[in-house]
Structure formats: C-alpha cells, structure tokens
C-alpha cells in the first residue's frame, strides 16, 4: 500500500511582516481511504501587489482540501485534480464579490499533488513548483506560468536570462482574476524512496535543483528537512515569503486499470 512521510515549513522572510503563502494537506485516516482517495498536498502563494493575497491563498487551500476529502471514492486523479482547481479558482474569484472584499483584487498561485497507489498527479497554476527527486537527482515537474518562461519556450531568451530577468515573476496565469483558468496537470510514476517537493518562488528562486535534492535526500525527520530548505533560502535572500512541503514515498502499490477501475497487480 502507498505510504508516505511528509514535513512542511513556511517563513515570512526578512522584509515582509505578513505571510501570503498557505499550505495544506489531506491525509487518509485508514488503509481503505488511502486506496479510495489517497493523499493530497498543496502550496499556494498569494500574489504580491494585490490587496488580499493571504485571503486568496488561504481560500485556495481550504477549498481544495475540503473538496478532495469529499470527492467520490475512486475518482481518477487526472480528472479530479484539474476539476478541483477550477472550483478553487471560482471560490477565489467569488471572494472579490463578497461585501467585505468588494472592490479589492486578489490572486494566488497553486500547486497541488495527489498521490494514490503508485502515481502522483500534479496540477498547478502560476509559478509555485513541484520537484521530483530520485536517487539524489531533482527534476522540475511543473513549468512556470510566467511571461519570461513563455519567451524561453519560444526560444527568444535563454534559461540563464530567465533567472536574471526583472520580469521573471510576471504571471500569465493565476487563480482568482478570471472566472475560468487552465491548470497544467501531469502524472508521475512513483518508486519507494522518491521525494516530492512543493515550493513557492521564495524558495526555488534562491536554490538550485542540485541544492534542493541534496537537502531532501538526507535521512532526517521530514519537518527538519522542510525547515532546512526554507531556512537556507531565507538566509540566501529572504525578500519573499518562503514555503516548502516535502513528501517522502516509503512504499507504493502497483495497480493496473480496467474500464477506469484500478486493480492490484500480483506481487
């Protein structure tokens, strides 16, 4: 059966007094629920420069985790997760219509990772990221929804220029401003020993994939590892809120699919 350990940490940084990042999780309460629902982890980064980034990110995490818990047993994660992200977007958008927030603008990024059997499904909007670490090597699963990353994909600028650009945080997609949003969704096949890292830009702007992989590959308590990631990023710069969730896969359950239903493969 799929089993994981996880840790998380967040820090407002050296400059800001408030933390507009938010994080949350759904952990199954039984073996049966681990097979019917799985695990969910999510990180959101309220967009700076708008009025209520912390409200947007907290709303996103609250709605996502609640609706994941209430989802139909056995829902296919590749369909469920982007559908829930759409619901989250609507919830954040609707916040701007509430009397206490009317006239205010709010937006947030979101990266969500659901795990079941031997699969992780990652759905995201914005520039919060997911990394997959295996055998000490990190691979970025998500692609930032930023203006400069679109320029890079078209071959107009290099990866080095993206990292140095003053426009690297200009988002082309976020949750909240529009009634509909298009998340990107990716599946990753898991093995025991894999580590998944969800992070806001306060962390991955300051740390290379190599540095992230080195820290999360240590045999330490998962909360210690998450705190070390965040502390290291804040030490390097600290101009932004910084958040990390770290999930270590202890065991997986290989399954096959038949007519949309999962069945266990013989060991």
How would the blueprint of this fold be written?
Blueprint: E1 3-11, E2 21-26, H1 31-36, E3 39-46, H2 53-69, H3 77-95, E4 108-116, E5 119-125, E6 129-134, E7 137-140, H4 147-153, H5 159-164, E8 184-189, E9 195-199, H6 201-204, H7 209-216, H8 222-236, E10 242-251, E11 255-258, E12 261-264
Helix pairs in contact: 2-3
CATH superfamily: PPM-type phosphatase domain
Secondary-structure element series: EEHEHHEEEEHHEEHHHEEE
Strand content: 25-35%
Helix content: 25-40%
Structural class: alpha+beta
Give the count of helical stretches: 8
Q: Which fold does the CATH topology refer to?
A: Phosphatase 2c, domain 1
Look at the structure and give the CATH class: Alpha Beta
Number of domains: 1
**Unreliable runs:** none
- The count of β-strands is 12
What gap, in angstroms, lies between the N and C termini? Answer: 12 Å
Average pLDDT works out at 90
- Largest sheet descriptor: 5 strands, antiparallel
Q: What is the CATH architecture descriptor? A: 4-Layer Sandwich
Outline, from the CA principal axes? globular
The strand order across the widest sheet is: 1-10-9-6-7
Our Rg estimate from Cα atoms comes to: 18 Å
């Amino acid at each position: 059966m799929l089993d994981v350990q996880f840790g998380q940490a967040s820090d407002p940084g050296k400059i800001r007094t408030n933390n507009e990042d938010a994080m949350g999780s759904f952990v199954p309460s039984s073996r049966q629920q681990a097979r019917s629902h799985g695990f969910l982890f999510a990180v959101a980064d309220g967009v700076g420069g708008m009025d209520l980034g912390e409200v947007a990110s907290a709303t996103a995490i609250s709605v996502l985790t609640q609706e994941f818990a209430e989802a139909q047993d056995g829902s296919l994660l590749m369909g469920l997760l982007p559908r829930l992200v759409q619901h989250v977007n609507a919830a954040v958008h609707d916040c701007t219509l509430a009397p206490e927030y009317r006239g205010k603008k709010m937006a947030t990024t979101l990266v969500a990772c659901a795990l079941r059997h031997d699969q992780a499904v990652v759905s995201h909007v914005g520039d919060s990221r997911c990394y997959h670490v295996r055998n000490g090597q990190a691979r970025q699963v998500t692609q930032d929804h930023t203006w400069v990353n679109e320029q890079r994909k078209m071959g107009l600028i290099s990866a080095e220029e993206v990292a140095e650009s003053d426009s690297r945080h200009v988002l082309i997609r976020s949750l909240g401003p529009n009634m509909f949003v298009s998340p990107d969704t990716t599946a990753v096949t898991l093995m025991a020993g894999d580590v998944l890292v969800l992070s806001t830009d306060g962390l991955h702007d300051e740390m290379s994939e190599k540095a992230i992989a080195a820290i999360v590959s240590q045999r330490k308590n998962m909360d210690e590892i998450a705190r070390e990631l965040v502390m290291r990023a804040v030490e390097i710069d600290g101009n932004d809120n910084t958040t990390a969730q770290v999930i270590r896969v202890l065991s997986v359950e290989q399954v096959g699919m038949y007519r949309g239903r999962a069945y266990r493969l013989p060991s």
